[in-house]
Every structure is written in structure tokens, then in C-alpha cells.
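Worked example 2:
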Amino acid sequence: MTTAAHAIPFSILDRSRTRQGQSHPEALRETVEFARLAEQWGYHRFWVSEHHSVPGVAGSAPTVLAAAAAAATERIRVGTGGVMLPNHQPLVVAEQFGTLESLFPGRIDMGLGRSVGFTDGVRRALGHGKGDAEDFDAQLSELLDYFDSGRNGVHAWPTEGLRIPAFLLAVGSGAERAARFGLPLVIVAAAGEDAMVAAIEQYRRDFRPGPWGEPYVVVATSVVVADTVEQAHRLLLPEAWSAAYSRTHGEFPPLLAPDQIDRIAMTDRQRRIVDESLRGHIHGPEQTVTAELDRLVTRTAADEILVHTSTYDRTARLESHRRLAAALGLTSALAYAP
């Protein structure tokens, strides 16, 4: 039976998370192998992320990592979720994506965000402070100009004239900005679902059609498929503990095994953060997960779902994505247009 979730493409975001005892190079190689498997299972896109000076995340150079993932695959779209534009000069970003599109034509996505470094030291090392909305608007406008006819006599080669799908990650005013610039929107499904739905509806009402296409909404959500709800919940614990640790120690650590987390004497605040972090995920056996995804797609009228999942058990994580693809019949996903 074709349901709401069966009717749209599903994609993957991988943050190249490290696990205790694992090196950053090992995590990056796992990401490239994950891209190859995602293509085999029928996912539509495979995106990588940008983080700096984070012990628990190896992905710091998304366009470089995207190139490696694209080289290891043949058909799946590859991109970024996203390149954090305040960390870079727009000309350089345009040149990097133009190079990727030239090497892997028709397969590259440009996901963009405005987050900056996790700490003051990282922000200084990246050469900026927090930045404001007007700065980001100017950067985004300049970047998009390089795909057209350049800016102030400066041209981005081999970028000019290419049409690489550009997506804007919704953080704060991101939905409003995506509508104003006429860009596809990527928005995270969270506990505050009413606010997310309202932002999506406002985006569609205010969207200004332009050269980058029609309104398009990608809803990002965490999904874990396992034999039982309890097993899936257990797989979510390592990421929940990392969130609690980062908010109480100022550092996002590598993932720990659930048995190790059981032995940690958490503070009351850490326990509250863990409990909060375990909410809002779609998890359980296939029937439970697909029913929840159907509800999410129906509620948001999403054009696409972007799945992101982190857990200590790498094998269980890969199996979760494989089982999700099988439950949704994603072998036809590659037939979808970008």
C-alpha cells in the first residue's frame, strides 16, 4: 500500500560521529562507505556536515568529504547539510561547489547554514564573531550571484552558469529567509512540532519564485529502526548522553556504549537533559516507524525526509537505515528529480 511516506524520497545526513576509541580518520572512512551503502539501499541524497574542533565529530571539511563520497558512488545525489557560510568567503564556496558539480554533474547539492563555531576560541580561529542576520543575507546574496554573472566584475569558475540545487537550513529566521531568497528549506523536526508546522506554512505562503525553483520542504528527523521500541530507545542513549555532556562541560564528546553510560553518576541536570534528548525521535520496529513517518509527512506536507541517526553501535545504525529503506521500498528513490 502506498502511504504518504512511501510517496516521497528519503535521504541521509551523516555527521561523521566518532565513538570512544575510534580515530577521526576512521570515522571519515566510515562516512564514505556509508554513502556507498545509502546508494545501494535507494536513498535519494547523502549529505555531510560541518563542525570545527569537536572531539565527537570528524566532519570539518564538508566539500572535501562530499567529493570523496561522490567518487565512491555513481548515482546518489551528494551534498552538504550544510556548509556554514559565515565560516567562509562566498567566492570560495561557489568555486568549491562549481568544482564538485563539474566533476560529478547532476549529483551535487549545496546545503547552507549560518551556525558558527561552538566556542569563542573556535570562532576567533575561523576569523569572525557571532555575525548577524544582515551579514548572512549579504553573504548568501553574494554566493548566489556567482552562479549567475558574478559580483563586481569577479567571476567564479567553473561555477558561473551552473544550477546546483541550493538548500537553506532553518535555524531561527531560516524559514523566512529561505522564502525570501526563493530557496528550498531544510527544517528539523523537534518536540515543538506546532512551531515547525507554522514555519513551514509561512514559508510556503511567502515564497518568492525565482531561478532556484519552487517551494520545497525537506524535514530532517532522527529515525531508528530496531526489533522493539525498547531496543531502539537504547540505541538513542549515546547521542542523548553526548548532548548532556556538551551542555554541562562545553565539549561534545565521542559516543559511549550504553553500558558505559549506565555506570555514570549523572547530575540531576544531566539526567534531565538526557531525558529531554530522548524525546521526539521516531523509533521502534518497522510498523511503528512507518506509521510515525506517515503522520509527520501528512502533518508537514514534506516534499522529502532527511534522516539523521547517531548511535554507538555502528552495525545497528547501518541496519536501521537498511531496514527503513526496505520498509519504504526506496529502490525507486533514485528516479526522483532533484
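The chain has twelve helices and eleven strands. Residues 64 and 96 are 9 Å apart (CA to CA).
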